[in-house]
Hints:
The protein is mainly alpha-helical. Helices cover about 70% and strands about 0% of the residues. It has a domain at about 35-210. It has helices at about 5-25, 30-55, 65-95, 95-100, 105-110, 115-145, 150-180, 190-210; strands spanning about 220-225, 230. It has a two-stranded antiparallel sheet. One of its GO terms (cellular component) is membrane.
Amino acid sequence: xxxxxxxxxxxxxxxxxxxxxxxxLSAHPIATKAATAxxxxxxxxxxxxxxxxxRRPPERRRYDARRALSFxxxxxxxxxxxxxxxFAWYAEVxxxxxxxxxxxxxxxxxxxxxxxxxxxxxxxxxxxxxxxLYYPLFFAxxxxxxxxxxxxxxxxxxxxxxxxxxxxxxxxxxxxFVQFSAVPLELQVPYVCVAGLAWNFILSARxxxxxxxxxxxxxxVVVPTALxxxxxSRITVQLRAEDLPAAEPESPRSIKKVE
Length: 259
């Protein structure tokens, strides 16, 4: 009976929030994008941690505030601030004309030049900026905030880069093609921030799974490995000296007389 009223109220509230956000985005673009990226990066990590904590015994559940801070700071710096300028540069440089020249029927290609420009931006970003800038900065920033040594950060980067890059391409190639082909430039960073909510969940879940437990798990407890596949804890049996059978004494015949 009250559903139409509730729906209209929610719609009005959403309109007010949307208009207020767009006003802030127009007046303070970098600060608004940085705050958006930082908040959603934290939310993605919080969701990943919540899922992971449910797999652990109650006595081992804890919220890792330092890791959450690392994702939040990195999201603010790279996604919110750096990509504000990076996407603007793509808009100026990558117009798809290079791909038009490569096609035989250039007149027909001109009709799809916006899509070619979107494909060009997507490939340059995913195959250039992501492996050369995004991941080195990600590992360095998160490692520094989490208090890792340089050797620990390097080992984590070598271990996780390959699997993360595969997931990155599978998730972001279609996502960013839509971004560069259909989303206005001023809304591209907020779009990436919203899509990044799901991506940060994937990224943080990988970081959680790759961490070794601080203490051996109880017998029979399934522990997630770095690749997300469970392994059962191995049981080490230590034998004490008194548990071993006593050695039989040598027979007199086996003892030779030493002259």
